[in-house]
Amino acid sequence: MANRKDMMHDHILDRPNSYIGKSVPRPNAKRLLAGRGTFTDDINLPRQTHVAFLRSPYAHAEIVKIDITTAESSPGVVKIMTGQDMAKICTPWVGVLSHLEGIKSAPQYALAIGKASWQGEPVVAVVAKSRSQAEDAIDLIQVDWNELDVVVDMEKALDSDVPVIHDELGDNLTWQRNVDCGDVDSAFENADHVIEETYISNRHTGVCLETRVIVADYNPGEDQLTVYHSTQCPHMMQNLFAKHLGLEEHKVRIICKDVGGSFGVKVHSYPDEYATAALAYFLKRPVKFTADRLESFTSDIHARDHRINTKIAVSNEGEIQAFEIDDLTGIGPYSVYPRTSGIEVNQVVNLTGGQYKNRNYRAQARVVLQNKSPMCQYRAVGHPVLTLITEGMVDDAARKIGMDPLEIRRRNLIPDDDYPCTAPTGLPFEKLSHHASLEKLAKMIDYDALREDQREARENGIYRGIGIATFIEVTNPGATFYGIGGAAISAQDGATLRLDAKGNLIVEISVTEQGQGTEAVVAQCAATAMGISLEKVRVITGDTDVTPYGGGTWASRAAAIGGEATVQAGKALKKNIIEVAGIMLQADPATLDICNNNVIDKNDGNARISLEEVGRICYYRPDTLPKDYQSELVVTRHYVPKQFPFAFTNGVQGCYVEVDTNTGFIKFKKYVVVEDCGTVINPQLVDEQIRGGVIQGLGGALYEECLYSSEGQFLNGNMADYLVPMAVEMPDIEVGHVETPTLESELGAKGAGEAGTGGAPAVIMNAINDALSPLGGKVTDQPFTPEKILKAIGKIT
Amino acid sequence: MDNIERIKINTVVNGENIEAFVEPRLSLVDFLRNELELTGSHVGCEHGVCGACSVKVDGNVVRGCLMLASQADGSDILSIEGASDSGSIADLQKAFHERNALQCGFCTPGMLLTSSELLDHNKTPTRTEIREYLSGNYCRCTGYEAIIDAVETVSNDRAGSGRNGKS
Amino acid sequence: MKPAAFNYKKPSTLTGVLELLRESGEDSSILAGGQSLMPTLNMRLSMPNMLIDINGVNELAGISVTDKTVRIGSMTRHVELERSSEIADHIPLIQAAMPYIAHPAIRNRGTIGGSIALADPAAELPACLCALNGSVEMTSTSSTRKVVAKDFFKNLYETDLKADEIITAIEIPRYDENYFSFLDELSRRHGDYAMCGLAFHAKIERETISDAQIVFFAVEAKPIIATTAMKELEGAKISDVSVEAIQVAIENDLNPFGDLHASATLKLHYAKELIKRAITSGISNE
């Protein structure tokens, strides 16, 4: 392939003074450390108003009457709007994509009309001079509700005696997908062992420390809508606000300031955000919406609510011969827009068992509606679920035949030299390193020593367990994720690089920053490609008026896709600079390079002219250049992966835990992750993504759960009752790497942001079950709480 | 409700004398953010659990969302901006930066002020003690380990032992 | 979530507070540490007309030790108890409770008076007060009275405190050096409300247990004094104590209610685990 180092001149991985592979501290972190970041709620515009929402207290209720008369004269109130009036300014949307065949969902409005379908759905918008005053007015609004029967148990959502949430859809089935590969029936019939198990992945949610925030302002003098938005995808939001408010897209500007965590929560579009933009348009003045923590719990997307029945066939020699799954997932009353709520289960269907040689695979998946908060993509999207069930099944098989969990994986993982190949579901794998990663992990965790320690501990009545989880992770998606389904979500991204008159480099790029270090990584790529030192690089992201058009940051694509666009632009700009330098120096450009802020002679390395001098001449003294020559010190390049629909990464997680069989509490004794994300641009940033991702995955595995009553009331939607991982309970994590670059890009980088989260639930479940196996106990129902552990070993009933 | 009497407060914020008339229900963190435009302290939950609003009042770290601005009358307030500008947490900031003990930065002011208070009272905390002291500060991005590393590094450096890394 | 509007007064004397309280009655709330009150105001679960800030009343501060009691002013903050040498010397049970109470920032503001007045079923200090046979001193414009702890805590968030009274002090008897204190709790995360907690206090002299107080918290609506278990321990020699017998007695004493994080069954199981710890790693090491 053309991107191989040995086939390319001036390959990005061969640059002198390279920043690739260096753990450079993030330049843009300093202001955050000084408390001088700018998060969207820090923005206050002249004549700004605040919007708060009266939200449905019921999971399913007809809105019979809304009386706003008293509320309208509450101090500070500027405007109160209900669904009918809002629908005149903001059109509804439907969360479907054509490549998810048969998916259906009802039109959803910014403010509910006719009925509310989940507890927390926005019904009335109150705009006032302050948030307090808006909330005061909400207390004065009188709503007559007629409570309706609710759909809360996803197992019953398709029963005939259960209400159909949207009549026009005919039933509560949003989507289903079936795959049948190889000969599953024959494999099960002839297998030495067939093990069945049911896994429950619990509904949980992102809990970004900065809630969703948006400040929208409409200037009628310019017919321009400006939106400060804590979002991952400014161009997508530009398209959506323009589309649903009837504005011209180029007259909608989205600006992302510092984003206080997003993890996919802020990659979706939300009714209250459309309402805010619509109100700004209507009122012709700024409207700010800052979700408070309580409304964040009920209105941010939830994720990962699945019940999966599984079946695995294995021979006495440990050969996995078939996987079969039946996945039922309950979303909210609407498929979320524009990415749809089918993607999570689609990943489960696509990738369960994907790291193994086995070709016999059958999957049935159904996505059903419920009267609960809407559910959609959240960090690692489906991978935590599919890795949980895959690695759970494999450990079950190992236990059944008395084989070591490492050994069964050695016998079944796709060999490292067997690529490219295709998963049974058709997904192509470029090149993965399951075996190299597994062996590295075994060494890092000192597997044999742990087994010995475990054995000794058991003799003393102490129960420790080793968990292993191999995983594949989707990163760097091309257009096959969303574009082909009709979504206006860009799969390509662009970087504009500009050398200024002082020889500094400005990079304007369409991928965005939420703390993972996008700006740092992009700067490292630009500096390396250009031969310029890092402190002379300034990166600008998150402004649709400034950067090229692109997809933003999600599915771990920013470093790899944004980085590659930057590299290509950097190489092209360097070519332009060398060309004009050649003219200035009367030298052949082929003999020149840029290194350490100077144009140098390639032969002897001597600096011939500084970039600052090149800039000065090009900008201020073009009269000294040939009449027929125009220098161009600005270059834009775009990049989209095309060969493979995704860049798959792979890795292994391993952990060693001690389970207190009196309390059910877990103590971490060791936690190791080996990750292969291709070329590593900034090792520290990648390792920290792994660490943060693991803790987030452990949160869902051990603590977090959105608990609902049988009436669809969200019972624990606050920070005291919804348990997120805090410092004391969480482990230190060792991270190791294997590097299998992708040849799709010159950089060879894949994504790394989600792998930690994808593998953690599987590894902790396997570790707990390994610890409990002598006691005959097993957990399969997340979160794996002390109570469930004690029940599993019969300590309580 | 009618006839709410505004409260006159005299307070010192980051060394500056401030006189203000505030609504009784205005929280200390909203006062800092909206009246004084010191936006470095953040609002994450408004129920005292996440720690994003941490500020120092009369030398002690408190939840800015659980105090009223009215209660700041006669008190000395230090927010992250004041702590940063004074240089008193410079070594913590440097250690956090080098260790990447922050990602989105939203929890960071709270983490810095709370760590600073820990090191004032316990000059050589163990990693467990660091985790315990920070147990009321929520971070979703880092998974905490880098933060613990950074605080440990600073405590080692201040103690002059020059040791780095994990104990 | 922003609170509903309220008026605010900050009297500088106890008399001033009590007069205001008498006038406003049920319409006002006392603002002490604010760590429990403010969240309810922020969530509009509580909407008083007036907040009476008692942080300016000096008479309510301070710890004083007499030969018979330790008197803790109701506005004494948790962090002061945590750092107090008087508490360390004279009430080790309360010192033991401190690290479990929420987090440092909360302890920097929260007060013992506030904790006792709120009587959260999962709180440590009410249980400690019961185990120490302490009393609550309450004052109104017309009177001052004291009520022993076990009579003070009545039901879920319900105490003997009247609408026109505030807690002015907590009084705890001084115990001699033969007394043993043990406090332990099980919670999902450090600083969380306990799923089950135990405050244990007993005299141990010549290897014999007497005056044992076994008080569980986070199990029922108020601190539960495990009288059957206490009878089992009365006069027993440490070496003769049967953990199993005590655990059976606990089953008799406790009628737990389950909550979001722990079922009744789990709470009972944990109560038995905690008493086992109190006996095996606590008393047995004395």
Would you write up a description of this structure?
The complex is a heterotrimer of chains A (797), B (167) and C (286). Chain A has 19 helices and 30 strands. Chain A has 797 residues and is an alpha+beta fold. A 7-stranded mixed beta sheet of chain A has the order 3-5-1-13-10-11-12, sandwiched between helices. A 5-stranded mixed beta sheet of chain A has the order 7-17-16-15-8, sandwiched between helices. Chain A has a 4-stranded mixed beta sheet with strand order 20-28-29-30, sandwiched between helices. In chain A, α14 packs parallel to α15 and α17 crosses α18. By secondary structure, chain B is α+β, with helices and mostly antiparallel strands. Chain C has 286 residues and is an alpha+beta fold. In chain C, a hairpin with a 3-residue loop joins β4 and β5. In chain C, α10 packs antiparallel against α11. The radius of gyration of chain C is 19 Å and the shape is globular. At the A-C interface, α4 and α19 of A face α12 of C.
Which descriptors apply to this entry?
heterotrimer, A: 797 residues, alpha+beta, 7-stranded mixed sheet, 23% strand, globular, B: 167 residues, 5-stranded mixed sheet, 6 helices, 37% helix, elongated
Characterize this entry briefly.
With 797 residues, chain A is of the alpha+beta class.
Mean pLDDT of chain C comes to 96
> Looking at the structure, what is the overall shape of chain C?
globular
Outline type of chain A: globular
**Beta-strand fraction estimate of chain C:** 25-35%
Number of domains of chain C: 3
| Helix and strand composition category of chain C | alpha+beta
The number of helices of chain A is 19
> What is the highest CATH level, the class of the largest domain in chain C?
Alpha Beta
Rg calc of chain A: 28 Å
- Order of adjacent strands in the largest pleated sheet of chain C: 4-5-10-6-7
Beta strands of chain C, count: 14
Fraction of helical residues of chain A = 25-40%
Largest sheet of chain A: 7 strands, mixed
* Unreliable spans of chain A: none
Give the topology string of chain C: H per helix, E per strand: EHEHEEEHHHHHHEEHEEEEEEEHHH
Biggest interface reads: A-B, 56 and 58 residues
User: Taking all residues together, what is the mean pLDDT of chain A?
Assistant: 96
